[in-house]
Amino acid sequence: MPTKLPQELMPAHNWEDPVLFESFRTPAFPIESLPPILSEMAVSVSDVTQTPIDASAVALLPMISTAVAKKFIVKLTQHGEGWTEKNNIYVCIALPSGERKSAIFSHLIKPIIHYERRLQAQMFTDSNEFIDRSQRLVADDATPAVLAELLEQNNARIALLSTEGGVFDMLASRHYGKLQNLDAYLKGFSGDRITIDRKKAGSIIINDPTVTIGVFVQPAMLNSIPERLIGRGLMGRFLYTMPSSNMGERDIELKSMPPEVTSRYYDLLTGLLRFNPQRPIPLLLSPEALELFQNFRKGYEPQLGRGGELSHEFLRAWCERLPGQLLRIAAAYHAVILNMNDQLESERLDNSISGETMHRALLLSDYFIEHAKAAFGCVKTNEASADAKYLLNVLERKRIPLYKRQTLWSAVKGKFSTAETFDNALAVLEDRGFIRISKVRSERGRDGTQIECHPSITSSSATN
């Protein structure tokens, strides 16, 4: 049986209050990570709609992606074939009903809709005389089959932008959740070739498909995402934000968007949309940017290993893609800065991502990590969270401050079918601050795992 240590032998660590179930502790969006025009637009939209800054700031990413997707590609090596990243982005913004999602969306998407209408009316061509063959830029949602058709009809590029999360509803259904039906969504992110052979309508072959996704969903919708979508890696392609609600603290003063902010944003998006190179322009990292990126990876990689902070099974596919996601954001920021400096149409376009731009993108790493944990906490609520709640009840009943992992596992393995499900439950409790997990070495030199419980669990007032 585990022994209760005397108080004087307990580790002298300060504890923060744990995050209760059905709530998540997530950081605020680092507004300084956005280039100037984007940051002022995010702040203005947030102020006018009285919504969390996270919602408007993160929603800007798919808007910029819609404008620049397939126009740039990031190359980390100058010569030969090496690591490359496209610059399209998938974003999921989880906000409860009544949080004015439509108002946020309306302010941000207007320049794209206006450009699409003018494009379809063939009122102009772009300045470098290359005709953009895309007649459709945006769709609301689409089945995988329809998405493939949209890509085929629109120069292998389309954006799915929506305030209702219909994409998730549709993909969660039994029919479209089948593995073979997801290719358009999976390959639309990576750019892998799509080949669809149809009996009656002929074949569809799409080279370098490029899809951008920006959707608002209700947090409860994430609970309905089936495991097969997580395992296939679709959910790992999204950047997530789960902003805290402003409801109850909103300013009731009626406000309108500053015209100069709206004008600068409109000109920025229109300039990016009109820029249509004949092929994607390779972007390289400047020496300073490369050093910053590699230093980030050096600190990030150990967290993915066994026992690392980000080694949880349900986060793995997402975490593997984060460095590439940050490169995609850096590429989008670079395009924004080129346009701001009137350099986008230059014959000698600067294709070197600066250290400052990379620094801005890297500022988002911790933010998106913590929000992904919250999002995947919702996704896993039907199993890992339920198991974690059971384990928390056990700890509260026993009121023992310190355990060896093997001792606790032996006490509850009748409930947990595998050691992996037990470890997932521990991970949820650790993420929420109920326990701390650390590596220890016994007097015999054997490595082990120690579990330390929050004082609220071991106090006499802990409830069953």
Describe this structure in words.
The protein has 464 residues and is an alpha/beta fold. It has 17 helices and 14 strands. The strands form 4 sheets. The protein has a 5-stranded parallel sheet, sandwiched between helices. The two termini are 20 Å apart.
Shape: globular
* Helix content, binned percent: 40-55%
Average residue-wise pLDDT = 84
- Poorly predicted runs: 1-12, 126-131
Which structural class do you get from the secondary structure elements?
alpha/beta
Number of domains: 2
What is the name of the CATH topology of the largest domain? Answer: Rossmann fold
Sheet having the most strands: 5 strands, parallel
Q: Measure the end-to-end span.
A: 20 Å
- Content of β-strand: 5-15%
Lay out the secondary structure.
Blueprint: H1 36-49, H2 53-68, E1 72-75, E2 84-85, E3 90-94, H3 101-120, E4 138-139, H4 144-153, E5 157-162, H5 166-172, H6 183-190, E6 194-196, E7 204-206, E8 210-217, H7 219-223, H8 227-232, E9 238-241, H9 259-274, E10 281-285, H10 287-300, H11 316-340, E11 352-353, H12 355-362, H13 365-379, H14 381-398, E12 402-404, H15 405-412, H16 419-431, E13 435-441, E14 447-453, H17 455-458
Parallel strand pairs: 1-10, 3-8, 3-9, 4-5, 5-8, 10-11
Antiparallel strand pairs: 1-2, 6-7, 12-14, 13-14
Protein name: YfjI family protein
InterPro entries: DUF3987 (IPR025048)
Pfam families: DUF3987
